[in-house]
Amino acid sequence: MLAFHSDETDVSLPAGSRFPAGRFRLLRETVARELPGVRLHAALPATRGTLCLVHEAAYVDAVLGGALSAAQQREIGFTQTPQTVLRARRSVGATLMATQAALREGVAANLAGGSHHARADAGAGYCVFNDVAVAARWFQRQAGGCPPVAVIDLDVHQGNGTAAIFRGDASVFTLSLHGQRNYPFRKEPGSLDVELPDGCRDADYLAALDASLAALWQRTADDPPRLAFLLAGVDPHEVDRLGRLKLTAAGLAERDRRVLTAVRERRIPLVLTMAGGYGEDLPRMVAMQLHTVRQAHESWRAWAAGEQAPASMYACVSLAGATEGEPG
Ligand SMILES: [Zn+2]
Predict the structure, then answer these.
(1) How many A from CA of 285 to the centre of ligand 1?
(2) Residues linked to residue 41 through DSSP beta bridges, in sequence order
(3) Does a structural domain hold residue 292?
(4) Cα 88 from chain centroid?
(5) What is the CATH number of the domain that holds 108?
(6) Omega of the bond prior to 310 within 30 degrees of 0, cis?
(7) Which domain holds residue 223?
(8) 0.85 exceeded by the pTM?
């Protein structure tokens, strides 16, 4: 399985930030050590034109030109520096590259990404650009005919930016399972939103997940998704500082297993993004994320062992012009 990373580029944080900048590098190093079958590649930055498939040109230019206001930077939670901007572009590049890899091989990953609070005209909540939305639009554009896409967002916070971007667009099904009383406090209606109460535990969560997936497949039965994105945030875990839910590591692992299995059984290529996770214990969080990547890798193996190769009729869509620089 291919996995793309962008953590070598530093992010600048204001004092007191709870953004776990060290988590991404630690995950990459842990994947390199524990999962030698995962092929790691440095991500290339997304181009301005690709970002503009989703984002308003004025916002993209403000980010790329270093012209975000202090208020805009506060809403995002990063200090705008050339390095922070490059990292945001590379994170979108990682999801684009993972999308192309998933179309060829069934499953691929961005070891960051899932920046689901970014809207067309603004960033928010540690999200500069909405990588999943950009990759979904890029796929639809390259494939032609606007094939349907599913976004399965299991980060504990609602995917409000993604929902707003695809509001009124039947070609992208946005599912979000999230804490009812958590950020963002004004939710944006997506295709299917499931609100979970504070303190929700494994059994109730998994029952809600099963019902949500059943609804997703039922509502897309006439024209099933040709590509799925999974936002596998570990912030529903019980020790997360921002989560408010009470899932265990075993519950999160079972969550990931059910989604990966259900998507693979339908022969839908899947792009894994890591999304949120704000526990104080970095190695413990990374261990949970490693388990997610391991399960995705197992799913990739099951694809590779199957008859169908390449994974998708869209396997030959080109990444030319979507990212800058030569693939390593
Ligand atoms: Zn989150």
Answers:
(1) 13
(2) 4
(3) yes
(4) 13
(5) 3.40.800.20
(6) yes
(7) 2-305
(8) yes
